[in-house]
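Dear colleagues,

I hope this message finds you well. In preparation for our joint manuscript, I am sending the Pentatricopeptide repeat-containing protein (Triticum aestivum) sequence together with its predicted structure, so that both groups work from identical material. I would be grateful if you could confirm receipt.
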Amino acid sequence: MARLTNVMGKFNQMIAMEVQPNTAIYHSLIRGLCLNGDLVKAKELVSEMMNKGMPRPSIVFFTSIINNLCKYGRVMDAHAIFDFVIDMGERPYVITFGSLIDGYCLIDKMGEAPRVLDSMISVGIEPNAVTCNTLINGYSRNGRIDDAWFGSV
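The corresponding structure tokens are as follows:
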């Protein structure tokens, strides 16, 4: 977190010198803030970008952050970013949902994984073979193979 604080200090110095940050700088900072759990500041930077007429980060950008957090077991943080993305008006896609499903499976929250799948279907996104396999694999890894059979039909 100390490095991120240092980087934010440099960012503020840059602005004080009237050097305008570009999209790449904003994306780097937003990614760092998300990975360090500072969604409030990440949201502020996204708003700042949009107020300056820059396009907000895409769903692909946020999906990569969600996926990384899930791989490290930080699924609640990932889900918070997922909610943030929806609040921004972005529409998650199959990989975004799949990352969350995989994350919940990895931390043995098998009650949440099918809820994410249901949410995905309810917004009109069809699960693909990878999504279904992820859920089935999660049930299997967690010793719930019988649920995998019924959860996949």
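For the figure legend, we might mention the following. The CA atoms of residues 105 and 138 lie 5 Å apart. The chain has a mean pLDDT of 88.

With kind regards,
E.M.
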